[in-house]
Amino acid sequence: MNTSKHKMTNQFAKDVHEGLSAPQKFLSSRYFYDATGDKIFQQIMAMPEYYLTKCEFEIFNQQKDQILSAINPGSKFNLVELGAGDGYKTKILLEHFLKQEANFEYFPVDISGDVLKTLKTDLNDRFPKLKVTNLNYEYFEALERLNELDDSPKVILFLGSNIGNFTPERAQSFFEKLNKVMRPGDKLLSGIDLKKDPHTILEAYNDPTGITRSFNLNLLKRMNRELGANFVIEDWDHFPTYDPFTGECRSYLMSCKKQDVSIEATGHTYSFRDSEPVHMEISRKYRLDEIEDLASKTGFEVSQHFTDSRDYFVDSLWNKV
Ligand code: AVJ
Hints:
This protein has 321 residues and is an alpha/beta fold. The chain contains ten helices and eleven strands. It is globular and about 65 Å long.
């Protein structure tokens, strides 16, 4: 029955309806991160196969001095972190910058107010001298607010390979938009996962313990809970792929049989064929020369690449030109 008596006021329901009505079905990975999804992602970061977090941790630990020299304008600066989360890796930098008596304030940005409150309490305990101002907005709105608050030079952190979730077109428009809210002299440090042995990459998204599988399946559970859907979790399988040409890791949920699923919040029923895929996530990997192209196309110049000892991951520092 496809009568839409329920108005789709909620963005989550609208996005789900759009994705499940498309000829090639998809769901957006931005909805992975409910309370359970956050917890599973913490487990992913701790898995031996998920090298990304370890690499960025190593880069910060080994090169915090060089990073500070490269970003410090010599006067007061504002350190802004897009998608701050629990600040696990950033604490290494914060601690080091404070020790070196760098003159800066910290502005974590996150759409989750709860996450920001926890982070601020933790940082106030740990580093009583650090001035922390939470910006509980979407990224671009946060940056505009900050421009109104204070015009010290900005150093923007966008860590953890979050850019990988964007298609190349969206990554380009994201950096263009970022460039527009930045002022000459502002800097951007992006954590980006690099192309490498495809086995290593695929393993990171296909762990034998099944943590990544449960991370994907959790979105079905979330839809059951929040949208009144009736997904039977046992009827779905996790299928990750990696294409070494494009550098795209993709994950799919596969319908294990022909089945219908109805969702109260959208007022629709969706039919799935046996072995029909639903595309869930892209985690795109880059080469350093592709990163340099992306920077110059979007109004930046690369100042420095900070890579780990295996060249698996880069924190790439860009200047607005
Ligand atoms: C948080 C988006 C960087 O794509 O590597 C981890 C999310 N998905 N395992 C990534 C994720 C499956 C992660 N990012």
